[in-house]
Write a structure and sequence with these properties.
This protein is α/β, with parallel strands linked by helices and 239 residues long. It contains 9 helices and 10 strands. It has a domain at 4-88 and 151-230: P-loop containing nucleotide triphosphate hydrolases (Rossmann fold, 3-Layer(aba) Sandwich), CATH 3.40.50.300. 35% of the residues lie in helices and 25% in strands. Strands 6-7-8-3-9-10 form a 6-stranded mixed sheet, sandwiched between helices. The chain is globular.
Length: 239
């Protein structure tokens, strides 16, 4: 039985079909990436999963529950957490205080010190969040998400604005979260170098639906993806 099952989801905006019969199965404990250019429907898809939008048709099944059309707070309580592109942290509070506040939203006991170590901020507990480097702010928000004890996390362009070093470190962090914390993870990204670091199943989205699925190497060499999706002979490293 799939942990997350998206069945023929559609969403229209003023006659424009942003999500067009989208279907995807995620197994529990899996790590998957979804790539595609701006406007292909990736963020709309995340909004459907988290309840920010209601699908026009189709259904969403999560961990044995039909969550189609539920309110965002109901979906969050079932164990789905989302990180947006821009870090939503409290700049005027310390790293530790940010994690403690996030942990307060969870019905379970959370070890924020362990999370702080996991996100590579073990020595930054008393630093003001606003003073952190951009990559560290992104990691802090991932930590705040973990503090809420989700079972599925949706990461929307977690490496946006990062240096190459931060990008690689973030890929390592996400793989660690997936493997050691046994969390199911779905990542949206543009940066194919980051996707290569993740080394996970990859789904290419075009015009609101899946164009191709496969490994990074398979997708990179696929002629349909190159010609029909990227419009070029080879996928660039930063596509």
């Amino acid at each position: 039985m799939s942990f997350l099952e998206l069945r023929s989801l559609t969403k229209n905006f003023d006659g424009l079909r942003a999500v067009d019969g989208f279907s995807l199965l995620l197994e529990k404990g899996s790590l998957n990436a979804l790539v595609g250019p701006n406007g292909c429907g990736k963020s709309t898809l995340f909004n459907l999963i988290t309840g920010a939008l209601r699908p026009d048709s189709g259904s969403i099944l999560f961990d044995g529950h039909d969550i189609t059309g539920l309110a965002p707070h109901q979906i969050a309580r079932l164990g789905i957490g989302r990180k947006f592109q821009v870090p939503a942290i409290f700049d005027e509070l310390t790293v530790q205080e940010n994690l403690i506040i996030a942990a307060g939203r969870s019905p379970k006991r959370t070890d924020v010190n362990s999370i702080r170590s996991l996100i590579r901020l073990e020595d930054a507990q008393d630093r003001m969040a606003g003073e952190l480097a951009h990559g560290q702010k992104q990691w802090l928000e991932i930590g705040m998400l973990l503090a809420q004890t989700p079972t599925l996390i949706l990461l929307d362009e977690p490496t946006a604005g990062m240096t190459a070093t931060e990008t690689r470190a973030t890929a390592e962090l996400i793989r660690t979260i997936n493997q050691s914390e046994k969390l199911t993870v779905l990542v949206i990204e543009h940066d194919m170098a980051f996707i290569e670091y993740l080394a996970c199943p990859l789904h290419v989205m075009s015009k609101g639906r899946i164009l191709k699925s496969g490994s990074y190497s398979d997708i990179r060499q696929d002629p349909d993806v190159r010609a029909l999706y990227f419009g070029m002979q080879e996928i660039p490293a930063n596509a």
